[in-house]
């Protein structure tokens, strides 16, 4: 099989996978924005009023990025924004780890401090986010995908 | 094919290529603009939702008249050392702390060594299948405080703590427990009317804005008290911290 022909399909899988990641992550937080605010606050990187705004905006942004990737609009830019968000999340987790905080990363949940006796899984969280970053990287490199708005607008068959 | 014909075809192909490139460029620009617009819009929605929620909460806020600390806590005792206890009625570790330290706290209050300030926060609403037990129980505790029975009700709620991730106690049960400690109709009305729901949100916000993120959080004379290895403090550690703060 010719790699040149395979790339659009590989990229399509990456696009839909990354889309699902963002949609799920956003949907799990959007139902309780107060909790989302507390999850951001648990990182202790900003005051609570700021955390509240970030915590509210974040799930909406995640869902928007997820939808944009789903329909495949400006895939390279969408993937770049997804990658940027992922980098911010990874930096946040590393900083929590470095400061010895015991928190749930709040990646796919509402997060917060861990109950006594439970240990944080920062290494796993970072590895998982790095995997998602790889998907975004594929799209940055090869943004042409099947079943996308981009393809439709460009007049590709 | 004549030379002129070939040239014309070549020229036509170049024009078509230029047109296609122009189209790609246009599509890229406009789709990028659309993406940015969608993201800005999504961010604005999130911001607007929170702003609206804040103003709705503010308009619905009923602060219990007996509450202290900017209306976010209930004080028990009159001792010189302030002990702040931030607890969620759904939190099993709070229950654990209460089980092992309640007698000590009661004694410290009776000995006029401490003023205990209870902050009923609601951070575990997700753990009651959507019935928001944390908020409902915190609101009920506020109603009990208005009825002069905070300590009694606080104790009975922990004695009857529901399992995490169950429906929690329903309002009828919350009222029944209130009656068992001598609360009356005003209490029942406040529970049923959700009078202190917004207030529970304010207590929780205050807790978060002070940089606390988990329950129970125990603060002795302004200093957070933690057990060894980040576990909950023991009754002995609490007594020692109070002793130290009293000087």
Automatic annotation (TrEMBL), chain A:
Localization of this protein: Membrane
Transmembrane spans: 6-28, 53-73, 79-98
Matching InterPro entries: Methylamine_util_MauE
Membrane in keyword set: yes
Membrane-topology descriptor: Multi-pass membrane protein
Entry GO CC: membrane
Any single biological process term in GO: methylamine metabolic process
Keywords: Membrane, Transmembrane, Transmembrane helix
Pfam families: MauE
Domain Methylamine utilisation protein MauE: 9-141
Principal localisation: membrane
Protein's UniProt name: Methylamine utilisation protein MauE domain-containing protein
Automatic annotation (TrEMBL), chain B:
Chain segments annotated as transmembrane: 27-50
Matches recorded under Pfam families: Thioredoxin_4
Highest taxon above the source species: Bacteria
One GO molecular-function entry: oxidoreductase activity
Keyword field: Disulfide bond, Membrane, Oxidoreductase, Redox-active center, Signal, Transmembrane, Transmembrane helix
Ranges of residues in domain Thioredoxin-like fold: 80-229
UniProt cross-references to PANTHER family, sorted A to Z: DISULFIDE BOND FORMATION PROTEIN D, GLUTATHIONE S-TRANSFERASE KAPPA
Family, similarity comment: Belongs to the thioredoxin family. DsbA subfamily.
Record protein name field: Membrane protein
Protein's organism: Paractinoplanes toevensis
Lineage, uppermost ranks: Bacteria, Bacillati, Actinomycetota, Actinomycetes, Micromonosporales
């Amino acid at each position: 099989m010719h790699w040149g022909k395979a790339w659009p399909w590989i990229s399509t899988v990456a696009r839909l996978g990354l889309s699902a990641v963002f949609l799920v992550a956003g949907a799990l937080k959007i139902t309780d924005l107060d909790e989302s605010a507390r999850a951001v606050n648990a990182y202790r990187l900003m005051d609570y009023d700021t955390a509240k705004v970030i915590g509210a905006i974040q799930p909406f942004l995640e869902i928007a990025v997820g939808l944009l990737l789903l329909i495949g609009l400006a895939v390279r830019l969408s993937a770049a924004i997804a990658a940027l968000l992922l980098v911010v999340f990874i930096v946040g987790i590393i900083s929590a780890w470095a400061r010895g905080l015991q928190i749930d990363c709040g990646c796919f949940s509402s997060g917060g401090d861990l109950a006594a006796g439970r240990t944080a899984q920062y290494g796993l969280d970072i590895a998982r986010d790095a995997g998602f970053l790889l998907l975004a990287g594929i799209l940055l490199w090869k943004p042409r995908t099947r079943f996308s708005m981009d393809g439709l607008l460009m007049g590709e068959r | 094919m004549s030379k002129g014909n070939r040239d014309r075809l070549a020229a036509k192909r170049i024009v078509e290529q230029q047109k296609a490139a122009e189209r790609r460029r246009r599509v890229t620009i406009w789709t990028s603009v659309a993406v940015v617009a969608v993201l800005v819009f999504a961010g604005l929605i999130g911001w607007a939702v929170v702003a609206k929620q804040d103003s709705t909460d503010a308009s619905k806020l009923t602060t219990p008249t007996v509450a202290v600390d900017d209306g976010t806590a209930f004080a028990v005792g009159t001792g010189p050392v302030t002990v702040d206890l931030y607890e969620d009625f759904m939190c099993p570790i709070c229950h654990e702390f209460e089980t092992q330290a309640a007698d000590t706290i009661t004694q410290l209050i009776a000995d006029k060594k401490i003023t205990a300030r209870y902050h009923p926060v609601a951070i575990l609403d997700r753990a009651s299948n959507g019935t928001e037990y944390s908020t409902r129980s915190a609101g009920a505790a506020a109603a009990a405080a208005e009825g002069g029975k905070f300590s009694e009700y606080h104790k009975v709620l922990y004695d009857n703590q529901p399992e995490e991730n169950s429906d929690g106690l329903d309002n009828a049960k919350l009222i029944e427990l209130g009656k068992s400690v001598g609360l009356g109709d005003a209490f029942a009305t406040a529970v049923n009317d959700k009078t202190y729901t917004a207030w529970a949100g304010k207590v929780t916000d205050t807790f978060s804005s002070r940089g606390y993120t988990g329950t129970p959080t125990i603060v002795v004379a302004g200093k957070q008290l933690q057990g060894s290895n980040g576990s909950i403090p023991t009754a002995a550690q609490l007594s020692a911290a109070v002793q130290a703060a009293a000087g």
